[in-house]
Each structure stands twice: as C-alpha cells, then as structure tokens.
Specification:
Layout: E1 10-15, H1 20-29, E2 38-44, E3 64-68, H2 74-82, E4 86-89, H3 96-101, H4 104-123, E5 128-134, H5 157-176, E6 180-185, E7 187-189, H6 198-207, E8 212-215, E9 221-226, H7 227-240, E10 246-249, E11 253-256, H8 257-268, E12 275-278, H9 293-299, H10 307-320, H11 322-325
Parallel strand pairs: 1-2, 1-4, 2-3, 4-5, 5-6, 6-10, 7-9, 8-12
Antiparallel strand pairs: 9-11
Helix pairs in contact: 1-7, 2-4, 4-5, 6-8
The structure holds nicotinamide-adenine-dinucleotide (NAD).
Length: about 350
C-alpha cells in the first residue's frame, strides 16, 4: 500500500516579523490556533522597533527561520521570494512623530522597500502578497466611516508613505496580475508594543511614577483594535481574501485620547497630576474611522476582544514584563500618539 504523499508546508515570508504586530502574527501562526502546515521566515532589519525577544515564545519552533536583513536589499529579497509561497508585509517605519522630524527613512523603507518586495514577488510569482496598510491613508474624518473606495488623502509623512506603498501594491495587481491584498486597520494595542505609541508609552511611564504627555485638547478620536483581532483578520485575508481587494479592519471601540488617558490612569493607579498637556502634533488628524462591513460580510471577521478586558490584560502584561520594556525606555520619545 502506498501512503499519500505529505503536502509540503505553505512557506510564508513575514517582513517586520520582529515588530509589534508582525511578531504577534508569527506567534499566532506557530501557536496552537495557527494553521497546521506552515513554515515561517521572518525578514527583519531589527531597527529600534524590532526585537528578537518578541519571538522568544516560538524561537525554538522548527518551522521558524529568522533572517536579519533589509527589505530594500534586492538580492536578499529575490532569494527569499524564490523560496516562499506567500508574503505578509508588515515591515515599516511606523511612528508618525518620527516621520514629522525626518521623513526620508519612511520613504526609503515604506515605499522603496515595498517596491523591492513587490518586484521580487512578481519575478517569482509568489501566490499571495498581503500588504499591511493603515486607516491613516484616508486622512481625517469628522463623522461617519470610510469604506475601502474612499480616495486616499494622507496628511502625515508616515501616512503618505504608507499610501504610496498601498497604491503601488494595488498597481502591481492591476498592471501585472500579482495577487496582492491590502489591509487597512485602525490603532492596534496589546503586548510587545514598543513604548513610544500612546498605550505602552503611557502605561510604562505611569507604572514608573512618571508623567505622560497629552496632545492638544485631547479630543482626537481613535478606534482601538486588539492585536489578536488584527492578526486574525490578516490571516483571513491571506487565506480567503480576494486578489486586488482592500479590506478595512476595525476594532469597534472609539475613544478620545482624553478618555483613553483616564482609563490608563485608572488601570495604573495614577491620577491627572501625572498628565502634562503638550502642544498639539503638527497636522494632527482629528479622527479616524473605518467601515469594516466588507471584511465582516466576505470573511466573517468581527473584533472579538472587549476593550476593557483587552486594555486590562495589556496593562497587566506591561506590569509583569518590565524586563522586556525596561531596557527600551531610554530610547523612547516624549511624544506619544500614533
Ligand atoms: P513596528 O514599528 O512595531 O515594527 C516594524 C518592524 O519592521 C520592526 O521589527 C522593524 O525592525 C522592521 N523593519 C523596519 N524597517 C525595515 C526594513 N527596512 N527591512 C526589514 N525590516 C524592517 O510596527 P507595527 O506597529 O508592528 O506595525 C506593523 C505594520 O502595521 C506597519 O506596516 C504599520 O504601518 C502597520 N500599522 C500599524 C498600526 C499600529 O497601530 N501599530 C496601525 C495601522 C497599520
């Protein structure tokens, strides 16, 4: 009797897999709820935001390979694309404030890096290329929510670089027929987030008795998405999404920065005397809000994490993992929100 031949695993190249969201995606793919037959290669440059410790829970997994390298390295990327079925592209410069003080690295990594990856994916006819974009590409919306057909109107250099990459990715689908799928998500939160974005910055500062900077009048509104929900949505798009399509991914909890600050103060046992009001960020978008009906109806995605519970667990994680963030604090900026 001949046994059926074992199917080779799906080989997934995850760029930026040592960052906050990318590492969560990798830990999920290789964890108990991940797909059965998958091999993951992380390509990460390990910038200030990348950290091998984010992959510690799966570091010994036999299906994980780590490549320390740059998405702009055309030879390296070409070689990797040849050996992979799918690409899930998280790697980026991701902090708006840094893009305001210096946009060059954002253009180099987010735009040129994406183009290098797309070219390699095309040359080797990668099966699926999931490009992780952001709700910030739409600009700012005073009321209502953007659907995927909204024209892009980014305001910050970060958002403009992401919009450029997002449009390039879609162009590779329209021009070359490459199976590109784009996701645009709202503000993520959860464990392992580098302490420069608002939730981990405020949490780590408050846990060490410090002060936190609140931009302007604190009335800017963000929709919060737990990173668990985000990676579940990304995986649904990789497995069941359609080529050339854009999927908004929302979290379902809109809060002003002031409301968020109040919740974090309470969770950390601090009061408003720890809050310093600072001058507003230049060009600060007032509100982001995505309509995620499409991914709900097509791919059965719904955010599943209750925000109160998710925030409490996130703060608890930072309380318990000072070894992870303590060494990172000297490198963080004073400014906060994404
Ligand atoms: P992050 O800053 O935590 O991680 C980025 C990772 O990319 C790091 O590991 C870094 O080392 C790596 N990287 C940067 N430049 C690289 C290069 N040239 N070559 C290879 N690796 C490189 O970012 P994140 O918060 O995990 O965001 C991941 C993706 O999701 C980004 O594309 C970001 O634009 C997008 N996004 C994030 C959020 C959010 O709330 N964090 C919201 C919407 C969209």
């Amino acid at each position: 009797m001949t046994l059926p031949a074992q199917q080779p695993p799906t080989r997934v190249l995850v760029t930026g897999g040592a960052g906050f969201i990318g590492s969560h995606y990798v830990r999920t793919l290789l964890g108990p709820t991940g797909p059965d037959h998958v091999a993951v290669t992380v390509l990460d440059r390990l910038t200030y935001a990348g950290n091998r410790a984010n992959l510690a829970p799966v570091a010994d997994h036999p299906a994980l390979a780590f490549v320390h390298g740059d998405i702009r390295d055309a030879d390296l990327v070409d070689h990797l694309a040849a050996d992979h079925d799918d690409v899930v592209h998280f790697a980026a410069e991701s902090h708006v404030d840094r893009s305001i003080t210096g946009a060059a690295e954002f253009v180099r990594t987010n735009v040129l890096g994406t183009q290098v990856l797309l070219d390699a994916a095309l040359r080797h006819r990668v099966r699926t290329f999931v490009h992780i974009s952001t709700d910030e590409v739409y600009g700012s919306i005073p009321a209502g929510s953007w659907t995927e057909s909204e024209p892009l109107a980014p305001n910050s250099p970060y958002a403009a670089s992401k919009a450029s990459a997002d449009l390039l990715a879609l162009a590779y689908h329209r021009t070359h027929g490459l199976d590109v799928r784009v996701t645009r998500c709202s503000n993520n939160y959860g464990p392992y987030q580098y302490p420069e974005k608002v939730i981990p910055l405020f949490t780590t500062r408050l846990l060490t008795g410090g002060a936190v900077p609140l931009y302007g009048d604190g009335s800017h509104v963000r929709d919060w998405l737990h990173v668990d929900d985000h990676v579940r949505a990304v995986e649904a798009v990789r497995l069941r999404g359609r080529a050339g399509e854009v999927y908004n991914i929302g979290g379902g909890t809109e809060l002003t920065n002031r409301e968020l600050t109040a919740l974090l103060l309470e969770a950390c046992g601090a009061d408003w005397s720890h809050v310093t009001h600072v001058e507003d960020r230049k060009g600060h978008d007032r509100r982001y809000s995505v309509d995620w009906t499409k991914i709900r109806d097509e791919l059965d995605y719904r955010p599943g994490t209750d925000f109160t519970k998710g925030l409490a667990e996130t703060v608890a994680w930072y309380r318990q993992n000072r070894d992870w963030w303590g060494p990172l604090l000297p490198g963080t900026r004073v400014v906060a929100a994404r």
